[in-house]
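Notes to self, Sugar ABC transporter permease:
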Amino acid sequence: MGPTVTDVRATEARGMGTKVPGPRSAPAPSPDPAAALKRRARRENLAGYLFMSPWIAGFLLLTAGPMIASLYFAFTDYNLFDAPKWIGLANFEEMFADPRWRHSVSVTLWYVVIGTPLKLLLALGVALLLAQKRRGQGFYRAAFYAPSLIGASVSVAIVWKAIFSDDGPVDKAQRTFFGVDVGGWIGDPQWILYALVGLTVWQFGAPMVIFLAGLKQVPRELYEAAEVDGAGPWRRFWSITLPMISPVLFFNILLETIHSFQIFASAYIVGGGAGGSACGPADGSLVYTCYLYVQGFENSRMGLASAMAWMLLVAVALVTAVLFWSQKRWVHYEEGAR
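result:
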């Protein structure tokens, strides 16, 4: 077959120096937007996990790992020195049958029921006073908040023990002004718990600050309208202030209740050595965590102590669930804020 017309024209064009385009190549495929987004998301996730890796490692090694280990130890006989031996539910049976354990539960519940409401009442009262505009507000707020910063320290607990001990300032004041001689609250099993309650009530600064933040969010128009209608201070407090700060009140109740169940340092230090007991005379300040410490580290019953710790976790979880269930009846949230 001879050359075609197209070949002849192409030869002539090349002879005249005209550039003839060759056969066209297939266009390059355009990048897939979805694949590019996935690669970018993977890079961002990797960077996020790298930044979170210290927290993840700390959570696994210092929180999740010890919790899983303590759950296993709760079903074993473990004394910190020998290998743990599986004993099933024996630790829980011994715990429920122990009268001293039941006494620690009652002491802790009494401490929670008395200390938490008094602390919140004092915090709310001081917050109401500080919410009013007056000279030196910043100083008073800092002064009332300071005990919350130092109250949990060991040094303050030692000073508190000296204040309420025999022949201490409180004991001398009782004898001088009231003619009552109880020999010091620390040495009396009926009064040492109230010394602990006084210490926790004194640390009302943290919930006070939260109450202050809630009071600042109450619209002033509500109070002005109530005053026009003739409502007095108590009526305005019960009908406006409490309903408007009920979410803040719920938060403080929840937080302080959990903290009260976890009391240990102040009870162990204030009650330590009193009457020859690690937790007060005649176990007067034997709160739950103090007895847990005694079983785990003084009696080397770490398996039993782990079972006690998990019972405390279950109890706090149940109390928290009851509080969340009850908030439907008395906590008032703004529309769409819940």
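- The mean pLDDT is 85.
- Strands lie at 76-77, 85-86.
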